[in-house]
């Protein structure tokens, strides 16, 4: 099993190389001179040449790319043009915020979508089914930046009960041990800080989870309906198993494989959504960092983040494979 | 008299049969979806005739006028006094162009690569699938953002950027269907009669994958509209001189506490349009391909 995971991770390396190659090639197409990101446009040619040499921008693009790959293997993704810090440090500082947001959004999506989908499947054609269906189509069609703005308008503006953006209030004074504010607050035993962190997390997580909630509702409904038509359900019913037990123990458990697949497939959408949601809520994660990096042409930062994003996507799909074996013992790794 | 009543009866019968045969499309989802497309096309094509004001006419004296059902600015004005309703109507044009172009290019490229991949298999297939895998490993939207950010803003570039990943679902589905089709008797019969590969692909495979393509197109258009709005919202879409729904929402962010109407109506336009296309896609799927439903 361990061997299987090592093989899968090794198989991801060529994909990561090509992905960074594509981004690198796109960067070469960008108009303007990268050196102007590092030094004033009015600087003398000699100064510009000096900076170019120091940052390796004078070398041919292909050599720059090979250098980058060589360094990346040792965990060195270069220095950010804008922050003048190693890319890996900036990313690592911001990464927990995005993971926290993505996990919270997934929990909301699963917590709302799965029960709603099971309920709709248990009573097809009823009002419950119609409500679940309307809810899921609304969730799938909702532009997350619009929902974000509306919720800010409502909960931060009108009711004034939740913050409109950011991740923690000034001077919260919880030491960042893991970088996950919720875990850090619990570790420090600071319940006030935990409450504050949850308040800041609430709106962005709801907005980011809305789309996924809609999809999970639909998928759960379809999967449970399929499972309810299976022979083993009829067997269970004829044995006198209660309807609730048939639904949850028999039908739902078999539907879970499909639901987990969707969570894996939607993870990429979640990461893309995070770029927008983090921008709307000024959430200090890697999504908003990527947007500012792109608009300020911070090439080393962008390529580092693209690799982190793609890597997370690949690792997530591996995790999904692992979860399969836990849910369904018939599935074996090979 | 007799003849006439007979015709009405048969007409009515025919109508009932039609409704029964196409009950998914003539239900709420289908009708709402078709209506959405009709409105999008009408607004997109005839925005100048329908919109009460010019979309870019500024009137700073009237900036941030709230909605007034009787006034000249029914949905209010924005921070430089432009009419929100007129801008939404004109914004339909960009959504229509992008959705149509992305769906068209993505389906043509994706279906071509998909049926070639599924029909010839072997090396061509693995090469095409490798390319698909690489493009698919970018989180959606990230590749589009990078393309627009590095190459520059503009309608064509946004279309290219959104097509870059959209062809892949078409490719995957048509590939799988082609693989199943090529083992069927009528294909084998055509082959043994000496029909060429391209003739078979065009005459026998393509018509048989078209239903799935139509279903996917509705979803692809919904996706293109939401993606384009996201890009415009981030300031990475078409140039700001062209009114877009996402761009209007981007403007609204700075006036969120003082002018709610700037955010509410353009977002509602995106939401209702995308909802319509998603519902239509679902109706088409239920109508033509119940098998697809759980995937």
If you had to describe this structure to a student in words, what would you say it looks like?
- The complex is a heterodimer of chains A (334) and B (295).
- With 334 residues, chain A is mainly alpha-helical.
- Helices cover 74% and strands 0% of the residues of chain A.
- With 295 residues, chain B is mainly α.
- Helix content of chain B is 73%, strand content 0%.
- Chain B is built from ten helices and no strands.
- Chain B has helices at residues 2-21, 28-50, 84-120, 122-136, 142-151, 155-181, 185-192, 197-233, 245-252, 260-288.
- The longest helix of chain B has 37 residues, at 84-120.
- The model of chain B has no long low-confidence stretch (mean pLDDT 88).
- Classes of the chains: A mainly alpha (334), B mainly alpha (295).
- At the A-B interface, helix 1, helix 5, helix 6, helix 8 and helix 10 of A face helix 5, helix 8, helix 9 and helix 10 of B.
Record keyword descriptors for this entry.
heterodimer; A: 334 residues; mainly alpha; 12 helices; globular; B: 295 residues
Radius of gyration of chain B: 23 Å
- The percent of residues in helical segments of chain A reads over 70%
Helix and strand element order of chain B: HHHHHHHHHH
Distance separating the two termini of chain A: 8 Å
Structural class of chain A: mainly alpha
The major pleated sheet of chain B works out as: none
Instruction: State the helical fraction of chain B.
Output: over 70%
Write down the overall mean pLDDT of chain A. Answer: 85
Number of strands of chain A: 0
Look at the structure and give the mean pLDDT of chain B.
88
Q: What separation lies between the terminal Cα atoms of chain B?
A: 53 Å
Sheet-strand content of chain A, in percent, reads under 5%
Largest interface: A-B, 47 and 44 residues
Q: Roughly what fraction of the amino acids of chain B lie in strands?
A: under 5%
Structural class of chain B: mainly alpha
Q: What is the quaternary state of this protein?
A: heterodimer
Number of helices of chain B: 10
- Rounded to an integer in angstroms, the radius of gyration calculated over CA atoms of chain A is 24 Å
Largest sheet of chain A, described in full?
A: none
Mass-distribution shape of chain B: flat
């Amino acid at each position: 099993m361990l061997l299987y995971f090592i093989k899968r991770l090794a198989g991801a390396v060529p994909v990561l190389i090509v992905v960074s190659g594509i981004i690198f090639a796109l960067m070469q197409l960008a108009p303007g001179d990268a050196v102007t990101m590092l030094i004033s446009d009015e600087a003398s040619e000699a100064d510009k040449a000096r900076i170019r040499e120091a940052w390796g921008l004078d070398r041919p693009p292909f050599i720059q790319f090979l250098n980058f790959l060589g360094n990346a293997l040792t965990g060195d993704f270069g220095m950010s043009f804008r922050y003048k810090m190693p890319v890996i440090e900036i990313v690592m500082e911001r990464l927990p915020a995005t993971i926290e947001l993505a996990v919270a959004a997934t929990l909301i999506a699963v917590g709302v979508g799965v029960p709603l989908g099971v309920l709709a499947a248990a009573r097809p054609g009823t009002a419950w089914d119609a409500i679940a269906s309307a809810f899921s189509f609304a969730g799938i069609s909702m532009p997350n930046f619009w929902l974000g703005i509306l919720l800010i308008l409502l909960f931060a503006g009108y009711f004034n009960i939740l913050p409109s953006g950011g991740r923690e209030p000034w001077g919260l004074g919880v030491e960042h041990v893991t970088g996950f504010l919720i875990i850090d607050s619990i570790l420090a035993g600071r319940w006030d800080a935990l409450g504050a962190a949850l308040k800041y997390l609430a709106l962005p997580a709801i907005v980011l989870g809305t789309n996924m909630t809609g999809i999970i509702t639909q998928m759960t409904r379809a999967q449970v309906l399929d499972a309810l038509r299976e022979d083993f359900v009829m067997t269970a019913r004829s044995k006198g198993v209660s309807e609730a037990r048939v639904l949850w123990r028999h039908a739902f458990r078999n539907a879970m494989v499909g639901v987990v697949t969707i969570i894996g497939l939607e993870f990429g959408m979640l990461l893309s959504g995070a770029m927008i949601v983090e921008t709307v809520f000024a959430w200090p994660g890697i999504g908003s960092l990527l947007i500012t990096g792109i608009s300020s042409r911070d090439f080393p930062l962008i390529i580092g983040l693209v690799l982190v994003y793609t890597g997370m996507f690949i690792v997530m799909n591996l995790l999904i494979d692992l979860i399969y074996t836990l849910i369904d013992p018939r599935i074996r790794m090979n | 008299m007799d003849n006439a009543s007979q015709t009405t009866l048969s007409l009515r019968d025919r109508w009932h049969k039609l409704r029964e045969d196409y009950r998914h499309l003539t239900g709420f989802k289908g009708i709402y979806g078709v209506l959405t497309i009709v409105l999008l096309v009408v607004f997109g094509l005839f925005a100048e005739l329908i919109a009460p004001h010019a979309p870019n006419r500024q009137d700073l004296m009237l900036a941030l006028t709230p909605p007034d059902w009787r006034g000249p600015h029914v949905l209010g004005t924005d921070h430089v006094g432009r009419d929100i309703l007129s801008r939404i109507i004109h914004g339909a044009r960009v959504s229509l162009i992008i959705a149509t172009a992305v769906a068209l290019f993505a389906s043509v490229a994706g279906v071509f690569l998909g049926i070639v991949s599924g029909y010839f298999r072997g090396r061509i297939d693995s090469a095409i699938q490798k390319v698909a895998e690489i493009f698919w490993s970018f989180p959606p939207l990230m590749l589009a953002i990078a393309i627009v950010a590095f190459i520059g803003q503009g309608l064509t570039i946004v279309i290219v950027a959104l097509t870059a990943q959209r062809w892949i679902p078409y490719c995957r589905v048509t590939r799988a269907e082609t693989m199943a089709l090529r083992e069927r008797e009528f294909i084998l019969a055509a082959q043994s009669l000496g029909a060429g590969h391209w003739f078979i692909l065009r005459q026998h495979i393509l018509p048989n994958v078209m239903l799935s393509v139509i279903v996917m197109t509705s979803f692809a258009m919904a996706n293109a509209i939401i993606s384009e709005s996201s890009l415009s919202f981030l300031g990475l879409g078409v140039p700001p001189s062209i009114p877009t729904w996402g761009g209007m929402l981007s403007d609204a962010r700075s006036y969120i506490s003082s002018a709610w109407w700037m955010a509410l109506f353009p977002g509602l336009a995106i939401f209702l349009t995308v909802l319509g296309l998603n519902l239509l896609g679902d109706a088409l799927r239920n109508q033509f391909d119940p098998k697809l439903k759980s995937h």
